[in-house]
Amino acid sequence: MILTRRKFAIGCGASAAATSLLYARLGFGAAPFSTPLPIPKLIDAAKLGNAVTLKAMVGEHAFLKGKPTLTYGYSSPILGPIIRVRRGDEVRMTVENALDAVTTVHWHGLLVPGHSDGGPQQLIQPGETWRPVLKIDQPAATLWFHPHPHHDTARQIYMGLAGMIIVDDGADSRLGLPRTFGIDDLPIVLQDRSFGSDGSIEYVSDDSSPLEVIYGARGDTIIVNGVIAPTANVPPGVVRLRLLNAANAQNFELRFSDQRTFYVIASDGGFLSAPVAMKQLTISPAERFEILVDFASGKGVALETGPDKEMGIFGRVAPDGSADYVAVMRFEPTRTIPGVQQVPTRLVEPTSVAEATAVRRRQFVLNSGLCASRAEAANHPGSLALIGINGRPFDIERIDVETKVGTSEVWEIISMGMAHPFHVHGALFRVLSIGGRPPPLHLAGWKDTILVEDKAELLVTFSRPATRERPFMYHCHILEHEDAGLMGQYVCS
Ligand code: C2O
Ligand code: CU
């Protein structure tokens, strides 16, 4: 039975008693934090002559000990490999669809033309193969890949399809950053799931319950790299975590259990100009942040997440009911290998682009069918009940926006009713303002996804072409919103 908690939600301003579906109530058959953090396989594309094969397949994986269940993965029972690519290289991908469903593979954050972007037009039928050539031409960054078939994206990702891409441009060694994959440079894929008593995950797309669409699929158990409550053994020094929120809908509110300071060094599009010291970090669906954490003290610590503000009183409650934060995983500085000892003071100055160069301004009103305030509703009539953008649900036959390669535009995003993580394909943007203010430092670099609570202004730069046959998408990355039509498409010529 999934999505149970949401059954308690009764729409806007719901104030029913908080439910306490507990993270630890499952008794998943192993002591918490006894499972080592799985590290997905690293595929170093250059070592394979820049020819990489991925197979979207059905597998079996036991989230709960002794209770294997059906899952999806890329060349793996669940999730997929970490593909490292080098800037300047051309990577020939072979994507086989061994699923029982039509799929696509989208390279989220990779700057490639529309025809190799893997959006909902680029269907791969079961048994078929897709062979895009990806020209890697962007600064170092942590990206990811996932399916994008319209109306089935949410289910396919929930079943396990997601992998990471690391773009390497040589900056890591120049900056002296931790860079030994799986040792002091760790991929951390955060998701949530609910499980049946038989250990199964099932994705119920139940259109008869609009709340399940409005809130998106939210599980009561966090999984990291596909497992519940793992522990990573790390060197007693500075460790780099590549955080990816691959959840369907949930925002994670991350902090360490001892409230230590950590340093955000990169966001979706690559490095920030300098590390940003933080104690708490919100990461919304599809966002990535790279952080440095110092384990030199030798003390173990838990990574925790707090209640998702979007869920209000339905946010997660700790197992003992006493606190708002639950441990997602642990880090134990037990390895003896010496690691990096210092957080650098400077990173990479992001290329600048002046707002004044923007050729036009557009407004996108995101509506997910949740009640908007009366004032908002008056400004945007017709947007109350609908799930869509600017009063229109997604239509794969309709091009919504036309742009030009080499230009930039100011996109004003307005979220109605709840916060939406807004994502643009084929382009990167800078946040000009968020909630009417300049962005905080960790959101001031290049990004492709931004959580918009009320409104944001983005300076979007277009550098890759996309045709009417293979346009780029922009959409909310709450996957149930996207599948329900909170998406548009644009061409770039
Ligand atoms: Cu993560 Cu349309 O993408
Ligand atoms: Cu949304």
Can you characterise this structure?
With 493 residues, the chain is mainly beta. The protein is 6% helix and 38% strand. The chain contains 5 helices and 33 strands. It has a 7-stranded mixed beta sheet, with no helix packed on it. Strands 1-15-23-22-17-20 form a 6-stranded mixed beta sheet, with no helix packed on it. The N and C termini lie far apart (47 Å). The relative contact order is 0.15. The site of CU-O-CU linkage (C2O) has 10 residues, from strand 7 and strand 32.
Question: Averaging pLDDT over every residue, what do you get?
Answer: 89
Tell me the number of helical segments per DSSP (H or I, 4 or more residues long): 5
Strand fraction: 35-45%
Spatial strand arrangement across the major sheet: 14-13-12-16-21-18-19
Give the uncertain stretches in residue-range form.
1-27, 316-322
Termini separation comes to 47 Å
How many runs of DSSP E, i.e. beta strands?
33
Structural class: mainly beta
Percentage of residues assigned to helices: under 10%
Radius of gyration: 21 Å
Report the bound ligands by name, code or SMILES: CU-O-CU linkage, copper (II) ion
The global form is globular
**What summary fits the major beta sheet?**
7 strands, mixed
